[in-house]
Amino acid sequence: MDPLLKIVIVDENPVRAGILTEGLREAGMSQITYLAATTNLLARIYEIDPDVILIDLENPSRDMLEQMFQVSRIVKRPIAMFVDQSDTASIQASVDAGVSAYIVDGLKKERMKHILDLCISRFNAFAHLETELHRARSALDDRKVIDRAKGILMKAKGLTEEQAYVLLRTTAMNEKKKIAEIAQSVVTASEMLK
Amino acid sequence: MSERLRIGFIPLADAAALIVAVDKGFCATEGLDVELVREISWANVRDKFNIGLFDAAHLLAPMAVASSLGIGHIKVPVISGFGLGVNGNAITVSPDLQAAIAAMAEGDVADPLVSARALARVVAERKALGLEPLIFGMTFPFSSHNYDLRFWMGAGGVDPDEDVRLVVLPPPYMVESLANKHLDGFCVGAPWNSVAIDLGIGHILHFSCELFQRAAEKMLAVRASWAEGHPETLARLIRAHDRAAQFIEHEPNRDEVCAILTAPGRIEVTPELIRRTLDGRLKVSPEGRIRETGRYLLVGREAAARPDPVQGAWNYAQMVRWGQAPLSAELLAAAKAVFRPDLYDAAVGTPPILPIAPADGIGECTGTHFDPDDIAGYLSALTIRR
Questions:
Q1: What gap in Å lies between CA A61 and CA A127, rounded to an integer?
Q2: 4-aspartylphosphate-modified residues are where (chain A) (predicted)?
């Protein structure tokens, strides 16, 4: 890829932008600008005059960008969106991944395809990371509530930690619920009985 | 077995029929299991709709036309057998601009022609003083809001591309930008004008129904290719939405409708804000002055739900006027073909009766006659155009 390609990344999520920037740098791109805030977005984009703009789909400023392309069209600086009209598979993949690419016309299609593919895989990697993080967090939350419930049972019924855990587990099995759910109801009940 | 559909929407008052059709069970009655997906930008709705992530979408009427003509984005032929609303926008200005326009007005400032001419004088005065041009916000290049503002300004002799600056802003930022004086005015749909009024930072200058008697606002759009493969589903969709529109327009249902529309995941503003729009009784100044109209937003009333090809021609004419599209008979035909009253009639049964029909189908406040078959003739009468 052309290392001199000017790329702007507009994303309110710095982690995702970081993943993307890193990937593009690994691919040899050096001129990457990251815009986190959308204030004065158009002026800043005009200033940078990028070849490619990558923006996350949940950014309300996308409509603003559309205006920029309209204006550009009038001033005879045509800008195309996505790779080209026929390449709906790329568009679909990019929208699915949550990224939208705006590409200045005249950029070689093959080159752009490369960037888009990279973005899609990076965005998917980010989504995966987020799911993992969420899972890890809820596992941690589960642990905490189970520990609290064990403590309550040990104190109230004079059980050992082992016995308290077995009680939670058998109740969960009998009620066809998760241990964390049973633990949560123990905690809630004890708070109500305070 | 009910059929699953995904429909994208933007949280606005004219998504009413979409939301009520699902949440009140009218879609389910037709055997449709519809998931409404709330989106943050028009570009998102369009892209997800264009590539098939959505089966149908809440689209700006000009956006449906632009998509079919392949201007501004990839070409995806779109049709609509159901109109989600006619009219429904308003032009709101800052208290300073309101005062300046009132001071320059020769005649009743409630008349859009009077206010537009006054705006021209304000613009000329600012120019003479070397001040920055006024800045107005609208929601999308292919939107009724863009054309409303341009039409109003043009009628008073203001060139919207030369004399002022028009910028696209997401509706929630519009109110904020008016408050911190980055904007002097904006044109947007409900409930955003009312939000600005309630914050005491703006005056509603005009309802869009004062500029035009009938202007198609949002459409329930489907891809032409999808419609071909799912004619029966489309008919059911139209029927469900027609029942929803009738339910909304039946006055005794209003409290319930407002509660449904403002629920979590839907529009999420106070029911009172939506109520003002549906009732056409809007607070227009921070002091609480009320202006009433029977036609602020038509949802199903006065045949608003029945798509009218004249609206396609009119929207296309605006695109030609402002340099967004070239003039050709082919594009005109494609623009008209987006609006499919035949599909509406076939699904619902008898066509509704139109009680107040302007002669040209639009009813422009300037009195210009719009001829859907002669765009060139219509445009030649206008001095300000691209």
A1: 21
A2: 56
